[in-house]
Design goal:
This is TFIIB-type zinc ribbon-containing protein. It comes from Glycomyces paridis. The protein is of the alpha+beta class and 184 residues long. Among the domains are: 33 residues, no CATH class; 68 residues, no CATH class. The chain is built from 4 helices and 12 strands. The radius of gyration is 27 Å and the shape is elongated. The model has no long low-confidence stretch (mean pLDDT 80).
Length: 184
Amino acid sequence: MGRGLTRFVEADQPVKHLGGFDHALVHCPRCDGKAISRAGRLTCGSCAYTSELHRKPVKEAPFQSVMCPDCNRHIGRYREDPRLLRLRCRGCGWTKAPAAKPPWTAPKRTRRTGLWLETDFRGRTLWARNEQHLEFLERYVAAGVRETGPFNSTIASRLPAWIKSGKNRDDLLRALAKLRARLR
């Protein structure tokens, strides 16, 4: 420890897990400026853009009445997709076996805003949620002695090996300084 490196004690850190940070700095979807995402709401200071990030609650599907195709008799009422159910008419005995698996639907694409404090580091993404997270990373990387807890439940224990490695310390500190410059 002759280089004047500091000591990092995980127990002294104010935030123990990544969800403990109250906000994230992200790119504004309208002007690509710095915006704040807090409690499901995105707010941009430069263009005054605001948006609710929570999805609207999905309304429960109404009951669907199913009629027999042969005798036009009422078979039942179902909430689920009738193609997935075994159907049987009590009047004429008509039956229909369920489909092998649910019909495939393409996943919905959601537009996700990128983090403001994000950079490339040797083909990997180095990122921080906000100023407090960036300060945490700077303290951790700069430390020569790192005291962490015994369990894999805190931020420091979940960091990737390339951040924990001492051989990347100087380059990581330079990359974190670039992220610090983006805050201004």
